[in-house]
Design brief:
globular; 29% helix; alpha/beta; 8 helices; 311 residues; 14 strands; five-stranded parallel sheet
Length: 311
């Protein structure tokens, strides 16, 4: 008898889970999360999941309640005798803490991996980890997806005459180079120095953008300071236009206001995190079809590498 697939969601990412379930052709599973007066909460699956393949969708952006809710759902699924428990984490929070960058700090990404494994997860599906090496923090399989599979077709549709790719910092050089290789174009890099976290001091351009239509690629937009400064740097150096493609729209503080007042023609993001406020310059592309496709391939033990091959 074929194993049944169930797709459930935590509260933070229900909007996306509903689209994933619809794309997959199933109804989103019924889960009840009870809040108690002291701030505790308890999830319960309101349907039989014994022997089923369970996909639990939840991004772990702030607050940390979203992560803990996911952990409780994994534990509940394990105790309800689910056959396989797969966490679909479109945005993997705490990923920027992937190493000790100064003395006496935690490596939060590793701790989160340990917590998920201890709760009983058997597989992780996620999109654009901040650092690829976080896959190695897990002792269970990690399907690391790339937003390039949905961004590349959109970029091609733009038909920009003088396209060049760009990275807003040196850490994203490999990402920009990968896009440039697929699109058969050049790329440039911004070199930045920070005064402190979330505050850029100076930025310089490595490469030529004069007369170019520039596309900046990054995994996260947080305060928006770096990427908006990079956009202005491109225009100051003679670019025709500048756009950004960023997977996870954290958009904390006044980030949306910065983007509205920036040199960007448009900023393309995905729905791994819900937009707090709508913006005329921000366009959202859904990851639902991609994640639904991967869920089907994981359930049927099929390769997912074909999703990231471009002609």
């Amino acid at each position: 008898m074929a194993t049944v697939v169930n797709i459930f969601s935590g509260r933070a990412t229900r909007y996306l889970a509903e689209r994933i379930a619809a794309s997959y052709g199933r109804k989103l599973g019924d889960v009840l999360i009870t809040d108690f007066s002291d701030g505790e909460f308890q999830p319960s699956f309101e349907e039989n999941i014994r022997g089923n393949d369970l996909f639990i969708v939840q991004s772990t952006f702030a607050p940390s309640d979203n992560l803990f809710e996911l952990l409780l759902m994994i534990d509940a699924a394990k105790r309800a005798s689910a056959r396989h428990i797969i966490a679909v984490i479109p945005y993997f929070g705490f990923a920027r803490q992937d190493r000790k960058d100064k003395p006496r700090v935690s490596i939060a990404a590793k701790l989160v991996a340990n917590l998920l494994t201890a709760a009983g997860v058997q597989r992780i599906i996620t999109i654009d980890l901040h650092a690829d090496q976080i896959q190695g923090f897990f002792d269970v399989p990690v399907d690391h997806l790339y937003s390039s599979s949905i961004f590349i077709p959109y970029i091609k549709q733009l038909n920009l005459p003088n396209l060049t790719m760009a990275s807003p910092d040196t850490g994203g050089t490999r990402r920009a180079a990968a896009y440039a290789k697929i699109l058969n174009t050049t790329f440039v890099i911004c070199y930045k120095q920070r005064l402190k976290a979330n505050q850029v001091d100076t930025m310089a351009l490595i490469g030529d953008v004069k007369g170019k239509d520039v596309i900046l690629v990054d995994d996260i937009i947080d305060t928006g300071g770096t990427i908006c400064k990079a956009a202005q740097l491109m225009m100051d150096n003679g670019a025709n236009s500048v756009r950004a493609f960023c997977t996870h729209p954290l958009l904390s503080g006044n980030a949306i206001e910065k983007i509205e007042n920036s040199a960007f023609t448009e900023v393309i993001v995905t729905d791994t995190i819900p937009l707090k406020v709508q913006s005329s310059k921000i366009k959202v592309i859904s990851t639902a079809d991609l994640l639904a496709d991967v869920i089907g391939k994981v359930h049927n033990y099929e390769s997912i590498s074909t999703l990231f091959k471009f002609d």
